Amino acid sequence: MENKLNHATLLAALICGSATTALAGGYTAPVVESEPSVAVVPATADWTGFYGGVQLGGAELSLQEPGLDAHLGLEGRHYGLHVGYLRDYGQFVAGGELSYDKLDDFDVGFGGPGDFDGNVIRAKLLAGYDSGKFLPYAAVSFARMELESGGISLDDTGFGFGVGAKFLATPRVMLGVEWMTNEFEFEAVEDSVDFDLGTVSLSASYRF
């Protein structure tokens, strides 16, 4: 009887050990490794460098003679050349630009002194925000304008300001749009005459 009890105890111990082993080495849920996240880096552009190109657009001459309420606005066009340099400081871009424009087709049209033609040379300082391939900017300018009308030549220098934007179509080709205004004062026969020149330009530049 004692032997049978020992065998039963041994069998029970073996069964318990097997059950414990089965539970210890039982089903284990697979560990799913998450894919590493990839940071999306926005497209960047380096604006540093020299450039040169052409521009054209519409122009308006606003004439105001002191002491008179009359205000005359003449619409014409402009076209010319420009060269410049930009320096990229990260999110801030600064630079300078020199432009020459031919002014014509300012038709008075009602028996005035005649059509206005001339030219304007502008030296500009630009400051903009680097948002990749798009560069919005503000500018201040110092300009010299010469006008001819009815055999009379006028010239003066004046300050101005404007806003614009440049776009990198390719690493070498840069497109732009700009609005700029400058104020001038010409000495007439009896008094001075104030001129405001406003231009809207489309430009294309090649980067060196």
TrEMBL record:
Residues making up the signal peptide according to the UniProt record: 1-24
Keyword tRNA processing among record annotations: no
Occurrences of domain Outer membrane protein beta-barrel (ranges): 42-208
UniProt source species: Paracoccus solventivorans
Annotated protein name in UniProt: Porin family protein
Pfam families, sorted: OMP_b-brl
Keywords per UniProt: Signal
Tagged with keyword Disulfide bond: no
